[in-house]
Specification:
3 domains, three-stranded antiparallel beta sheet, 13 strands, alpha+beta, six-stranded mixed beta sheet, 337 residues, 12 helices, Heat Shock Protein 90, Arc Repressor Mutant, subunit A
Length: 337
């Protein structure tokens, strides 16, 4: 097969010089993150990570190996970078700060996340004698969106990723639509990556918890933070995620001391996360709960029955298809870690 006929990830990098372009320290840093042996032969380690192949008894690196382990991958793939912009107000008329982040993909994610933290607010509120810090956004959700953009963008397009920060929102925009002509509803809860090896390396380095759950995690993190769910826009040219911020109500994100912390009731994170989900959805069954958190139906029923027992849910029906819904009056919901 000719190189131009291969998918982006498997295309070999022409005339790549290991002596001049390869960064062994990046490979060692990755191995440490991924809990892999550090006493390796670089070419063998790259081969095992699907970052190249043998050609005439010599190892040849591919585009994935370039993006993760080259000193300056942007010299070969000029579209591989993230632009972060902090705008004044809610329009693109005036920019306060702009940065282009190059380098390997993991460094791009970490630099973009740091930029977001620098350019969003951290408020505080006194609760008695205790100071409570309040982040403007749940950074785990923003980080998830940036990782998704880097993993799933179309690298054959000559555009880069944008992270735009406004007074009232954050936008994460990646080149390319959802692969295979699928809709957002069809891919939610499923793992259908455009770039399987890139996604797998992020998973190995512990940047991705579980494949196919990114959209749900962003949704749940925003709800748990007291904000509305992310908004998605999908076109043939790009995929956009918009996180609406709290505006001047940032202090309302904190839980006063007289509100109940659900962790004190002995609830696990599944039980805590399902409560804001049920604020947005009428009911859930044990089967749906088991699929949502990848647990057995027996464990799911135990989760839900506990919430019935302490007075947060009410149960309709007596079979496995019983529906669980929120009671009308509840104590204030909290419990984000």
């Amino acid at each position: 097969m000719k190189e131009e006929e291969k998918g982006f990830e498997r295309r070999l990098v022409k005339d790549f010089s290991f002596e001049l372009e390869f960064d062994e320290q990046k490979l060692r840093n990755f191995a440490e993150k991924a809990n892999r042996p550090l006493d390796f032969v670089p070419e063998q380690a790259l081969y095992d990570l699907d970052c190249g192949e043998l050609v005439d008894n010599h190892f040849a690196i591919n585009n994935v190996g370039l993006l993760f382990f080259a000193k300056q991958p942007e010299k070969r793939l000029k579209q591989s970078y993230v632009t972060c912009v902090r705008y004044h107000g809610n329009t693109m008329v005036s920019a306060i700060d702009t940065k282009d982040f190059y380098g390997d993909l993991i460094s791009q994610v970490e630099a973009a996340e740091d930029f977001v933290k620098r350019h969003t607010r951290l408020a505080f509120k006194m609760d008695g004698f205790n100071r409570i810090d309040i982040e403007e956004y749940p950074y785990t959700a923003i980080r998830e969106a940036i990782i998704n953009a880097v993993c799933h963008r179309d690298y054959d397009l000559q555009n880069n990723i944008f992270v735009n920060i406004f007074d009232d929102r954050i936008e994460v925009i990646s080149p390319g639509s959802i692969p295979n002509g699928l809709t957002l509803k069809e891919v939610e809860g499923k793992s259908i990556p455009r770039n399987t090896t890139i996604t797998d390396l992020f998973r190995k380095a512990d940047y991705i918890e579980k494949l196919g759950t990114g959209l749900k995690r962003m949704h749940e993190e925003m709800l748990m933070h007291g904000l509305s769910r992310p908004r998605y826009t999908v076109t043939k040219a790009y995929f956009e995620v918009v996180f609406k911020g709290p505006g001047d109500k940032i202090l309302d994100l904190v839980q006063p001391s007289n509100e109940l912390d659900l962790r004190t009731l002995g609830l696990n994170q599944r039980q805590i996360k399902i409560l804001p989900y049920l604020q947005e959805n009428r009911f859930i069954t044990s089967e749906e709960h088991s699929k949502k958190f990848s647990i057995t139906e027996r464990t799911a029923r135990r989760d839900l029955e506990k919430l019935v027992e302490i007075g947060y849910l009410e149960k309709t029906g007596k079979t496995k298809a019983s529906k669980y819904s929120l009671k009308e009056k509840l104590p204030a919901l909290s419990g984000e870690e």
